[in-house]
Write a structure and sequence with these properties.
325 residues, alpha+beta, Nucleotidyltransferase, domain 5, 2 domains, three-stranded antiparallel beta sheet, two-stranded parallel sheet, 44% helix, elongated
């Protein structure tokens, strides 16, 4: 199977989605299928059509040849199998159910076959991928029918997300960016994804063939967000509350347990002597960080920060004396 969104060879310069599948038997090509989906489609739309076409091609082959034996279906997309054969609740669950029903019908009708679906890295050395790639690029050059113009749901989602990210980026450059969040974690314009450290704490991140993951509780994730924005349970945050009905903050309220005044995020994470041992153990692997920004500049340091917060539980709960009234 092969899928693409390409404008190669088109005079109108539109990026067109196309899909193709090739069936091989006894080392020769038995048949193939290719289709052009339209210009307002995503890579995911192409991969859906490639998967669907491959299953239909397989059904035709088994029926026509009364084939009995193993069948190997190969895709060059590392994410396609996870998206289309994942039956948990997600945006494309309906596609997973559709493919499951198609596969079940195929195996029930032709009980003498066995089906294996695998991912293989695309390579021109593999005849099947080379042929499928040729077919899909050939299809992308084809004319568009009127029925292919309406944008898909995935395309509309991608278009809306791109517009939102663009608006956020304009706001990022237009605003003065003086808050603590911009000085610590939000050092680059928005890209539509969660910050690196939040992804490490939830789904994990893969970079350079290595997986970075450090699961922490929801409580620790909330504490992390408060520390990034400067809204954590620290003395510096207490100083932000100035109201005629609220008494002035005392030194005891704004001081750290170690005695430092005022207690702020930088002190809690980088300097407090009460957590010195944990800081050396978790935050100093690549050298001791001297600024909040350096705590978020690499996956290793992000993991170290999450471990530090989970072990020390600093600023997880407010001091009782801070509760007004």
């Amino acid at each position: 199977m092969s899928a693409t969104v390409s404008n190669k060879g088109r005079h109108d310069d539109k990026s067109v989605a196309a899909a193709a599948a090739v069936m091989y038997h006894a080392r020769t090509e038995w048949g193939h299928t290719k289709s052009v989906l339209g210009d307002k489609r995503t890579q995911e739309d192409s991969e859906v059509e490639a998967f669907r076409s491959a299953l239909l091609l397989l059904g035709d082959f088994v029926k026509e040849n009364d084939y009995k034996g193993p069948v190997l279906l190969v895709t060059g997309s590392a994410t396609a199998l996870h998206r289309f054969l994942n039956f948990s609740q997600h945006d494309t669950q309906y596609l997973s159910l559709e493919f499951a029903q198609t596969i079940d019908t195929l195996l029930t009708t032709y009980t003498q076959i066995s089906l294996t679906i695998e991912f293989a890295k695309k390579s021109s050395a593999l005849v099947g991928f080379k042929r499928a790639r040729h077919l899909v690029l050939e299809a992308a050059k084809g004319p568009l029918a009127d029925s292919q113009y309406p944008p898909s749901i995935q395309y509309q989602r991608a278009e809306s997300k791109a517009a939102a990210v663009s608006a956020w980026e304009r706001q990022y450059y237009d605003n003065p960016r003086r808050s603590q969040a911009y000085d610590s974690a939000l050092t680059t314009p928005p890209d539509g994804r969660m910050h690196l450290i939040l992804r490490i704490a939830s789904t994990g991140v893969q970079a350079k063939g290595q997986v970075f993951s450090q699961r922490v509780s929801r409580e620790i994730q909330s504490t992390l967000t408060r520390l990034i924005t400067g809204h954590a349970f620290t003395g510096a945050y207490r100083l932000m509350f100035k109201h005629k009905n609220l008494p002035l903050a005392t030194e005891e309220e704004i001081a750290c347990v170690c005695g430092a005044v005022p207690e702020d995020t930088e002190h809690v994470l980088l300097h407090c002597p009460l957590t010195h041992e944990q800081r050396l153990r978790h935050l100093s692997e690549d050298g001791a960080p001297d600024s909040l920004r350096k705590l978020f500049d690499s996956p290793k340091r992000c993991i170290g920060l999450l471990r530090f917060l989970a072990e020390t539980r600093v600023c997880v709960k407010p001091r009782v004396t801070w509760e007004p009234g």
